[in-house]
Task: structure prediction
Amino acid sequence: MPVVTGAAVSWRMTQPDHRGLLWGLGGSGAWALLSAALAVTGRRLGWWPSSVSSQRRPRLMLLTASVLAAAAVWLVCERLGAPPPLLAAGRTAVLLVALVLACTCFSNISLHTNAAAASITLMTVWVDAGWAVLYLLVAAIAWSRLHLRAHTPAQVLLGAVLGTVVCMAMPHLSR
Result:
């Protein structure tokens, strides 16, 4: 979902120049692939028990790697000449993951609801307000995290609220 969102929002932010779509796919896709590669490699090297860890220490390590991956992708995009609005969006992504990392120091925040809420908020704010109907998907993801007993209601709510608030603030952060 974040890769599709990154592409759609980047395309919309840079219209009528369609290169924004490529920047969005490249930036969000590189971050997703890099984060996935770090998760799988860390699992194979025994750094954490699974590719998606719910244990505090491995989870903090995975999130730290994701923050570093996001920052690295942002720096590469900046060096390659990405349009300023897209660099602002990239800074927001780094900020959001850093805040999730900070929250994880105190609570096992739901990354699933966070990513879904952030993605749908960006689509609603930057692409079309009609995407707001997909907040029902956030509710379904939240319910599934509770049903699986992976999170408490507070952890699910914190994930959704953090993703929504940071992405709602993005237009103001990009100035």
About this structure: Residues 48 and 58 are 5 Å apart (CA to CA).
